[in-house]
Each structure stands twice: as structure tokens, then as C-alpha cells.
Amino acid sequence: NAGVMQNPRHLVRRRGQEARLRCSPMKGHSHVYWYRQLPEEGLKFMVYLQKENIIDESGMPKERFSAEFPKEGPSILRIQQVVRGDSAAYFCASSRGQLNEKLFFGSGTQLSVL
Amino acid sequence: QQQVKQSPQSLIVQKGGIPIINCAYENTAFDYFPWYQQFPGKGPALLIAIRPDVSEKKEGRFTISFNKSAKQFSLHIMDSQPGDSATYFCAASTTGTASKLTFGTGTRLQVTL
Description:
The complex is a heterodimer.
Chain A: E1 5-7, E2 10-13, E3 19-24, E4 31-37, E5 43-50, E6 53-56, E7 65-68, E8 75-79, E9 88-95, E10 104-105, E11 109-113
Parallel strand pairs in A: 2-11
Antiparallel strand pairs in A: 1-3, 3-8, 4-5, 4-9, 5-6, 7-8, 9-10, 9-11
Chain B: E1 4-7, E2 10-14, E3 20-25, E4 33-38, E5 45-50, E6 56-59, E7 62-67, E8 72-77, E9 86-92, E10 102-103, E11 107-112
Parallel strand pairs in B: 2-11
Antiparallel strand pairs in B: 1-3, 3-8, 4-5, 4-9, 6-7, 7-8, 9-10, 9-11
């Protein structure tokens, strides 16, 4: 049973480009969470999605960031017109049901903006 | 304010020692307190979790102590080993389908021989 799969592991973008981060939850999991981790900081919640629905996006910046979790395929975190401050590790997690079941994290995508 | 404060920032102990990591929270609605372990280049992995109806939970060499009145909880690692060297995060959340974890800033633990 494969774990949470994130790709790419490393992504380099120049300022102004778009970044697309993908997350495939564990088999049987329909709840996906995205977190951002800056160096020497804890993880910051960004968005919580279920299949085809955004449940909580209170941690998402109002502009340039969007997320989706379509009926088929992985969840996508999209960052438009990236800036240097977007450089961080982005982690996806999944769970089978409500949050307080065990949350499984992927290995993350390290985004570097030049 | 939805905040979890974690200390110390880093910790060095000798093999066999008992590192203790502390966390404090403000939101009295929090009712789920997990600890995550993260190795370099990997995502966090759930280590152990506690709910406020108990004051202590033990799983193997890992123990959580919980003080509801002080709004504090801590992680103890018994007989620590070099393989325990990692970054540890405490977290908190409220029960419910729209909940999300609020993480502490992490403690980098190094266990020396």
C-alpha cells in the first residue's frame, strides 16, 4: 500500500512562473491537506479538501494560490506568478475520514524560486 | 489565538538520556494533541497522540504528559537512541471534519553516543 505520493520532490521556478505541485493520497483516503514549511519553522496549514470540494482554505494566501482535488487524479496545489517568498517545502497529507484519524504525510515538494 | 508554543528549539542528549520537549497552547477548544517526528528530507510521521481526558499516554519509549489546567503537554523519550535524532513537532486541533492541525515550531533533537 503506497503512502502519500508527492511530485516533484524538487521544483525550481523563476519569479513570475507558475508552480504546480501534485499529491496522490493513500489508497482509500479521500481527505487531503496541504501544509507549508519554512526553514526553522513548523508546518502551517494551507487548505483542506475532499474529493471535488474545498472544505477549509483559511490558510491559503488570497492571491496567486489555488488548490483542487478532482474526482479523478491527484490533488494539485497551484502557485501563479511565484515570488522568492514562496520558496518553501510544501507537504501534503491525507486521511481516510475526519482529521483526528491518523494523518499521513508525503515527503514534500521543495520549491525554490530564483 | 490559534497558537502552539514549543521549546526548546534544539536539544542534545547522550544515548540513554531522557529528552523532554514541552508545548503550550492557548485555545481551550483544542482536544487532540499529536506529536510528529520528522527526519531530514521526509514528511512528518505521527509518533503518539493524546486527548485531554487522560493525563499521560505511553507507547514504547515515548510518553506524553498532559496538564489540562496549565494548557501544557510534553513528550518524553525514554532510553534515547541515536536513531531518535530528528525534529519533533507538537500539534493541536479541535475535533471535527473541518479541523486542521496547528503545529509548534519544532525541536531538533540530537542523541549522541
